[in-house]
Amino acid sequence: MRERHDSRKGLHVRQLKIAIVLVLVGGLLTTAAFLMAFYTAEVQQFGTVTFDSEIETVFPLAPPELQPGGGKIAYVQPWFSQKIFYFHVPVAEASFLVLIIAAYFAVRFLVTKRAAYDTKSRIAMETSLVFVVLTMITGVLWTKASWGVWWEWEPRLTTYFIMMLMMIAYFVLRNSIEEDERRATYAAVFAVVAAINAPISFMITRIIPSNHPVVFQPGMAPSNLLPFIIGQIGMLLIGYGIYTARMSEERLRERVEITKEALEG
Amino acid sequence: MANRSTDAAAPGSSRSGRISSWRQFRAILRKDIVMELRTKEMLTSMGLYALLVLVVYYITLSQAGQNFEVRRIAAGLLWLVFIFTSLLGLNRSLVHEKDQGCLDALLISPTDRPVIFFGKAVGNLIFLLIVEAFIVPLFYFIFLSSSMTTAMGPLWMIALALLLGSIGIAGVGTLLATMSVNTKGKDFILAVLFIPIMFPLLLAVVAGTSVVLQAEPGYAQTFWQMMGLAAGYDTVMLLAAFALYEFVLGA
Predict the structure, then answer these.
(1) Which of A178, A186, A192 sits opposite B251 (nearest CB)?
(2) Please, which residues have CB within 8 angstroms of residue A183's CB and are 6 or more apart in sequence?
(3) Does B179 touch chain A if contact means CB atoms closer than 8 Å?
(4) Coil, helix or strand for A7?
(5) The complex's ipTM?
């Protein structure tokens, strides 16, 4: 008995160590991508940002004779607002991936009814919510820099906002149910519904015309692609690190609960 | 009320050991309708609530001035009434089931669980459609009949948009309301779960209704595109709700 306990304790410590290493490596890669974005990445003229009328931006516009026309806008420093791409897009894609993982664990829970999958699904949802909030913050900064407004009810922003609301609703739902099994089942059902709903929202944004830039085009320069990929890998490592750390914390908490009950009984 | 569902289905059970799904479905639907005919509770509360929302609209628009074209935002206002009333109706419809122990009785009876879902969803759909049939003409006379432009698309287009929207609201709403009645903050939880999930459907049906109301040239194309989206949403989400309802009932 004692031996088994020791080996389980060892597992927690090892998990926590792995989590710390993952977060550190991920942070290092993300920082590298950030620096590369400023030093090696070349400036692109992604001409997808169009405006209906005059705008105010924090960045000075190029003189009128240098404006490209056709509804597009050139800045004196066209490079600055592009740099957020190497952070914003990896975070956004990581948030989707983790949401899909949360839904996958929710389905596993519904099929097997094992509490461990419920915990995994909840932790994945938490991690995804962190990324969603980061995406919203970086997105809003970019919007202000590039479009001159903090927020616009533009389809892609809107659907992302809706996704954030669904994740918050997931936790509100969890908090309002007392019984463990019912909470786990309802949360899993809602996670699946939310995961089905998210791509539908995004598909609708593609049908309604939007001025959110589509950066991925064939023939993207290697100097742009490399920091992006590094940033993406770094972000996924950070995500997995957060997830592992929270999981080991959760398991420790469960053990404390069991020990407490044993002591009281 | 629990007895009623078994009573209604009883004749079939003597012939074969198992009652067909269709009979079970009819029994559940009949139970809801008979209960509504006796108490008239759902339709009165939903109808009255919708009227009150219209009064609030009048207050909202009272300072807008003569030149304000209500028609441009009418579709959104109309759907807003239905969102609020359906939140109220869905919550009531399942609170009844739970408080009177009917849901438990249905689970004990040899009823197929998908049938319970369709029975409740169709019941909610019928009540919502009745409220809509009553509110839409009223809304037109109060807010749109004095409008300067009278051009409007055909009525059946609006009816189609209302039907597609209501199917999604009733189907997904039944799933979410079954969950929310078992939580601490019943109606609040329903609103928190319901509105983000309904978002794509509402966007599509409001756009569809709006183009018909304004009837600008070439509106039919946009209308059919939006109806396609709404129908796609209904199909996907109803299948998901249908598959997941069993787990919700089992918990």
Answers:
(1) A186
(2) A174, A177
(3) yes
(4) helix
(5) 0.84
